[in-house]
Specification:
The structure is a single chain. This protein is α+β, with helices and mostly antiparallel strands and about 575 residues long. It folds into 3 domains: about 25-195 and about 425-460, 2-Layer Sandwich (BirA Bifunctional Protein, domain 2); about 255-385, Alpha-Beta Complex (YbaK protein); about 470-574, 3-Layer(aba) Sandwich (Rossmann fold). It contains 16 helices and 31 strands. The strands form 8 sheets. Strands 3, 7, 8, 9, 10, 11, 12, 21 and 24 form a 9-stranded mixed β-sheet that branches. A hairpin with a 2-residue loop joins strand 1 and strand 2. The longest helix is centred in the first third of the chain and has 21 residues, at about 170-190. The radius of gyration is 29 Å and the shape is globular. It binds adenosine-5'-triphosphate (ATP) and magnesium ion. Adenosine-5'-triphosphate binds next to strand 8, strand 21, strand 24 and helix 12. Magnesium ion binds near residues 212, 411 and 414.
Length: about 575
Amino acid sequence: MKYSRAFLQTLREPPAEAEIKSHQLLLRAGLARKLSAGVYTLLPAGLRVLHHIERIIREEMNRAGAIELLMPALQPAELWKRGPRYDAARQVMFTAQSATRRTSEETVLGPTHEEVVTDLVASVLASYRQLPLTLYQIQTKFRDEIRPRFGLMRGREFLMKDAYSFDCDSDRATASYQAMYNAYSRIFRRIGLHAFAVEADTGVMGGSFSHEFVVPCAVGESEIATTDDGSYAAAIEKAVSLASPRPHNPPPVPFEKFPTPNVTTIEDLTIKHGVAACCQVKTLVYIADSRPVLFLLRGDHVLNEAKVLAAGFSQIRPATPEEIVSMMGCPPGSLGALKPLPSSITRVIADECLRDQHGMTTGANEEGFHIRNISVPRDLHVDEYRDLRTALDGELHPTTRRPLRISRAIEVGHVFKLGTKYSEAFGARFLDTDGQSKPAFMGCYGIGVTRCLQAIIEQHHDENGIIWPASVAPWQVALLLLDESLHEMAEQLETQLESLGITVLVDDRAERPGVKFKDADLLGLPLRLTLGEKSLNSGGVELKLRAGKESTLVPVQEVPTQVQLVLNQLLTAS
Ligand code: ATP
Ligand code: MG
């Protein structure tokens, strides 16, 4: 392929507002171009990378026994309404309407495909003999993300590989899950991503267990908790830890109200009245499934909303200040779950760390007053204790007793063991060996294909540009033609390399060598060949690895075999 015809000149245009390095490189190297917020055109070089990622995904999915199909993006809303999570899914859904109004049917653009695939399988599944079955597709998803950003990392339209497994029972569903988990590990390794699995929250998907595959990245949007020896890794939504204990839990003594004018935060109470955050009870008012609920935590702890959802709520939001005043009779800042509770509050859930704690301070439910020497079991109304806390950096993991590090990462894949939530909703049932009709046990498995493309750049670049892993590079070799007089020799080399199955991008532009070297570094093809009078006079063509510093001189006739050798080394090393 000739550079002048590869549509790569686009790289001349400076990126408009790239927020992270990989986004900047994606635009500068001419791989993608923004159409609107979270919506991108993949330019030819970017598309070539995508095709490599897709090929590797297909090879590994097929190897794991999954079967490819392609489901529609345009989906009847009616189907979603029959499913178990329409309301939650609508938070990110695009709807589509016919401008002609020939049809009044409500249509959505699929954010994912559990509903469609389960309905499909329900229509064909009859017997245990048809199971196990894993179906997959590589298909465009639409999500109205609150904050589309970082280029392909968080798009409103993006490509996903999604797979769905159907099994006779829970054990066999676990085996299908494991097969996908293993396939994911292979896929990420082969495309050059250093990804690892973390225990994950099942969230709105429902289901019994789940892992996210993540790549560490300082600007990633996911937070993970890991121990240094790698024995524990979990998404922050799921991470468990031992809280650092309060220095002292005193015996219970009578409580005492005291004035706290203008104190509305944990910090205020610490600064103005010397009450350590760990000795305060934080009272949070939420609307959970339309009902007011209080969550209580130690003042130095942070509520983990995913753990609240795991407690059995399906939709939660913090109450507004107005709602708080009307329910508690007092503004936020002086709240307490004191007995007796205002009648509007339906439930109080306290974090485990508050169990049996005395000598605590909480709001008096009266503006400008707090109460000290609170004994939680004696003075506060608590219906239930649960783990509600977000794990903090440095806390110990409960069983390994190793300190947790909280860091940022990019989620590139997600595997769920779903259970029968969807198969029951859509009637995906089969007759088992015992003649009983049973719902299929499902799993679902996603990889963000376009997100992976950019995550690879995020993991493989230096100050000069991208350094593509050989397995996914848009072309394997950059052949820089420095003297137009050597045009024919370049063509010959290109033909010879291509006949060996090696992909080549010939920089045939009328540009100065400096520009060509710079652009070659930016685009980051694994091997660079430089063909010029100077190197020919000293004995051949200059061969350089993008990832290395040294170059070697290779006699012209040996170039194809040398290139093949080095490429093979790169491919097997990855
Ligand atoms: P996130 O937490 O990043 O919003 P998610 O948990 O909603 O992702 P899943 O529903 O698990 O995503 O989708 C499967 C995979 O699709 C994710 O692991 C991720 O790699 C990718 N993905 C999800 N949302 C986007 C998006 N807006 N843009 C690009 N890729 C995405
Ligand atoms: Mg996910």
